[in-house]
Amino acid sequence: MVSIAEPIAKPATPLRFILDRREVLGSLFVAPAILYVLLLVGVPFLLALYYSVSAYTIYDPSWRFVGLENFADILENPVFLQTLGNTFVFTFGSQIIGLILGKFGALLLLRPFRGRRIVRALVILPWAVPIALATVAWEWMFDSLYSVINWTLIALGIVTRSEAPNWLGTPHLAMLSVIVVNAWRFFPFAIVIFLAGITAIPQDVLDAATVDGAGFWRRNYQIIVPMILPIVAVGLIFGTVFTFTDLSIVFLMTMGGPVGATSVLGFSGFQTGINSGDVSHGAAISLFMLPVLFVVVVAMLRFIRRREI
Amino acid sequence: MPRATVSKALQETSFYGAVAFFFVLAAFPFYWMVITSFKTNSDLYNVTNIPFWFNDPPTLEHFRYLFENTLFTTWLLNSLIIGLCVTAITLVTALPAAYSLARLTGRNGEALGIGIFLTYLVPPTLLFLPLSRVVAGLGLQNSMWALVVVYPTFTIPFCTWLLMGFFKALPPEIEEAAIVDGCSLFGAFIKMAIPLSLPGILTVVIFTFTLTLQEFVYALTFVSASAQKPITLGVATDLIRGDIFYWGEIMAGALIASIPVAIAYNLFLDRFISGITGGAVK
């Protein structure tokens, strides 16, 4: 006997009705995520804005509006101006070193060779491992007495033990050290980004260019660079945001010292707002990140939109 | 042609030299972690010893001390609990959100998705002050549960974006067929879309977990009680007595905490990159 399956008409309950409406279900599905982000990113962000124009401290939680007084106080403080300058030096220094290392690393890893997989896996480590843990390893390598770097320099006869550099205790060397650590953490990411960009270029495009008479440099600068630019830009955006707002490397390695030489915005905001409890000034300091973030977000939007064309 | 051979050999040497440079640059700090964590203290703190290798026989003393005399196991457990809870919250919110933005809300979904993703770029150092007030308001100050509440603020945006890509890559015909067969729209999501995007879900689980392990700023801000710290914070800040760093123990702890993250990254790297670049290349 062949029986044709009759579609059983399910009772049209109100729930079923809701679950079948595309717009309704769509809104229900996206609501928890949006609510979470609004409540714990959006609201705190507005709170941060308000703190920066109020007299709020943890000892005197008053919401008294003081206008731009906090910003004026901060800008009058020469230490803050130094912090602002440090933040730019720290960000651009480590991004440039990271990008250069990333480009070279990517070129090396493009070529097949024995052990490439192992090298690639190890080269990713600085970026993968929690930065706080890698930073303490570097702190130990920069130790004032037992530094392995100094030991090597002394063994090679470049310096003597009495004049061995105190990496984290001398202003310029301390800045150099935190930049090196951040560049070290960032360069594997840059390698991966460059690799992703270069391998995404169709070989026939390059072949066509070669046939048309384009040499190595021409291929590099007129085809490869423009084609990988969007992806490199996105990578650079991430690197810039995370470096410009970073706190952990400076906090663990130098505590902003010596005498404020490595203090950056994130660290200064933390010290003022959390350690000293001066929430309003801390918030105002942190908000100096906002213009940079704004530029970055606009750039990001440009690149994300472009891919849809 | 000896000259060509020589120049070829030179080229090869400089290539492998450059590879070796990158290899050492990336791996040396980890080698340093390993060697420090197995050295005896008298070997570590003697400037005349060659630091690159064992001068005394290797020891497990630091690991023993770490597990028996410090809160290391508590931190491990805390990190595990935080990771599991944050992963659960992230999946429950990001899965439907990503599906909705990829499938149900059309053109607006794309814009909303980009909007959510951009919140991933709002840095902790901008939000920690107000969030510490929020955390205090919830009665969670100095508790690891504060981190369970706060970490989804960056895992949800990131994972929604990542999952959106996965759902978009699924052929919509499969769900349409299920709906024709009498499945509700909701049913099609549960019975078709989720099982088919299991690889994506696995990626999200791994990355949520590693993102919670890597986080430092919020943990530092909200948790100061030693017994409530996650592993990264505990190892980096709690193995110091006054001015004395317990380098052997610190490096041993850092090593143990680093290994799972390192493995996870290497396995899921390509998916992470396509997520983070948001398909800036086709």
Largest sheet of chain A: none
Tally of contiguous helical segments of chain B: 14
Instruction: List low-pLDDT spans of chain A.
Output: none
Number of strands of chain A: 0
Q: Judging by the overall fold, what is the CATH architecture of the largest domain in chain B? A: Orthogonal Bundle
The level of helicity of chain A is over 70%
Q: Tell me the structural class of chain A.
A: mainly alpha
Multimer state: heterodimer
How big a fraction of the residues of chain B is strand?
under 5%
The residue fraction in helices of chain B comes out at: over 70%
Secondary-structure-based class of chain B equals mainly alpha
Order of helices and strands of chain A: HHHHHHHHHHHHHH
User: Regarding CATH, which class of the domain at 69-130 and 186-306 in chain A?
Assistant: Mainly Alpha
Shape of chain A: flat
Structure, explained:
The complex is a heterodimer of chains A (309) and B (282). Chain A is mainly alpha-helical and 309 residues long. Chain A has a domain at 69-130 and 186-306: MetI-like fold. Chain A contains 14 helices and no strands. Chain A is flat, with a radius of gyration of 27 Å. The termini of chain A are far apart. The mean pLDDT of chain A is 84. Chain B is mainly alpha-helical. Chain B folds into two domains: 2-59; 70-276, MetI-like (MetI-like fold). Chain B contains 14 helices and two strands; from the N terminus they run αααααααααααααββα. In chain B, strand 1 (240-241) and strand 2 form a beta hairpin. In chain B, helix 5 packs antiparallel against helix 8. The longest helix of chain B is centred in the N-terminal third of the chain and has 36 residues, at 2-37. Chain B is globular and about 75 Å long. Chain B starts with a helix and ends in a 6-residue tail after the last helix.
